[in-house]
What does this fold into?
Amino acid sequence: MAVETPLKGNIGDSIKRKEDDRFIRGKGNYLDDVVLPGMLYMSINRSPFAHARIRSINTAAAQAVPGVVAVVTGELLAQHKLAWMPTLSGDTQAVLATDKVRFQGQEVACVIANDPYVARDAAALIEVDYDVLTAVVTPQQALQAGAPLIRDEKEGQKDNHIYHWEAGDKAKTDEAFAKADRVVKLDTFYPRCHPSPLETCGIVADVNPATGHATLYMTSQAPHAHRTLFAIVAGLPEQNIRIISPDIGGGFGNKVPIYPGYVVATAASLLIGKPVKWVEDRSENLISTGFARDFHMSGELALRNDGRMLGLRVKMLSDNGAFYSDAQPTKFRAGLFHIVTGSYDLQAAHVETDGAYTNKAPGGVAYRCSFRVTEASYLIERLVESAALEMNMDPTEIRLKNFIQPEQFPYKSATGFEYDSGDYPRAMQVALDKLGYQELRKEQAEKRKKGELMGIGVASFTEVVGAGPGKHYDIAGLRMFDSAELRVHPTGKAILKLGVKSQGQGHETTFAQIVTEELGIPAADVEVQEGDTDNTPYGLGTYASRSTPVGGAATAMVSRKLRDKAKKIAAHLLEASEADIEFDHGKFFVRGSPSKSKTIQDVAFAAYTNLPDGLEAGLEGVTYYDPPNMTFPFGTYLVVVDIDRGTGQVKVRRMVAVDDCGVRINPMVVEGQIHGGLTEGFGIAFMELITFDEEGNCIGSNFTDYLLPTAWETPKFEMGETVTPSPHHPIGAKGVGESATVGSPAAYVNAVIDAVGHLGIRNIDMPVTSDKVWAALKEKGAAE
It folds into this structure.
């Protein structure tokens, strides 16, 4: 009987995730597991109003509660110059409100107590006298003449406009539209949603008053960047700040910003001299922390009568909430939304974007995508679908006619991106074959004769991930490189320390596999450490789909640096010239004599015991990797739906996803990432929504109102792949990113529109609920 050889953990091996051993046994170490001697607890009093001036704050009742140690207000923070803090987008944000509140759920005061329940009860006793003001709940309302001024504390701020930003060539685009046979238009809205990670945000701040050293346990996706920003905001010497980001129960961009709770807990620990823990509850997370999307988008596509695309015009208005605190590169005010040209060979495009303050929570984050790429992909794919309907073309035909072709790469887009590699027609063909597209179109035609509604949705996407390069991309002025430090011990075991931070992506497994591929050390013998700023090299963290493209590249490069040194040691051990030494699968050997070899373990031991003259001892190094370009994962998704005319209910019958993320380090982990993204895309398309009434009350502040998909609703996913390596990435990986989230919402919605488009229904905004579909059918006289 053949014995299966265990996988060593090279690139391409689907080894089990190392970290899961502790997670499935309940042995993870999360923020709320941190308990320190003498620890106090903090609770926040939040505004019930979206817009109101604060007349007074009475804390006497709260202070009188037994067990309460302190009550902190904005006035107290102002005495220490901590009432306001900078945002990641160069704006300022109130830590605790001093003049007025600007969104429902804004932080007004905090209670510190010796018990979490005492703190919560006391916070409810704080009396705030509010003068309620008119709330501004849409960016269109915000930009109207005479609209209430939200940021009246900002010198020179005369209205609610935040930014205007453009990309592309307006004149060239106007010329393209002048030559067009027709112009297809679409107005659509990508509504506000929330990352809603399983674990909410929190901190345990431990500031030692004797030494001035601060140890901050935080739910942070970017601990090094947060340390620098804390030093700037709190005025603490950076070398005295240690941030430890333990196991994180999901992030999805939600744990990139610095929230007021972090700052207040740290200030309270500094002033009181004891550790302070703050962990928000679910409603606090949903109403006050970093949201996603909320883009109002208009697109125009210029075409010839044969379906060839000539140009693209886009206008986008973003709802940024009460403070402009989007987590995105500094020079790109709307993130990377200008990737809106997608997978198409458009010779001209012009994108105009504007942002506005509203009385809503701030903090647009890269939720399971690169910076605002999901919104861009949604717009172009919905627009192309509209063009196919208007021109009576098959939606796959119009895409295939306009795809950037493989021989055109590297490709410079009309808005300035340089796409690294791609084969879009191949990815689509794999998806079509897997679905059985032509047969399903025949079935659809037969069903239409019977009056039945069946739709086949198509979406092809190109994502842009892996920010830097640092000369173009920074967060709060910090260049977007990343880092890896690798040490091989005398016994051949290794420790890899990273500047990125996992929130469930499987870094402890996949990054170890890169070391295995480059040095031959089994993945089981490589320990991966992240999240402790005192014990890892400086990096910008994990968000916007950048871990593998940047942190993974740094891991490959530092491994190669060590391999070069190991080669010198191997030459010494083998008594041969370094030029004659070759390396393969963890062994160094003399060219032409493979039997004369030394393993990486032999060389590692020699690095500490038997070195050639003049060579420094040890086998370790660090690399800071600044990528030369972004990477561009892509794919095609197909969705089949059936719609009940009587109820408007949409049932997803099939979902085929074909992704190309370059070289796959661990295919099983990649598949899990894609499954998560497809599920999130399904949720956004059909149920997830945070909205507000006219007074600014948040509707979606709990999981009764903010619906998340479960295994019951989520459809089955059928996976496919193509592999087009990135030419500039050290191992050819584009990074799986969150392409499934980027591509799938448009595929789901396009399927619905494909089912009802022949009835004259061309757009239904997300979430596509049964009542929306039924109302659209009724309007066209097609409902039963």
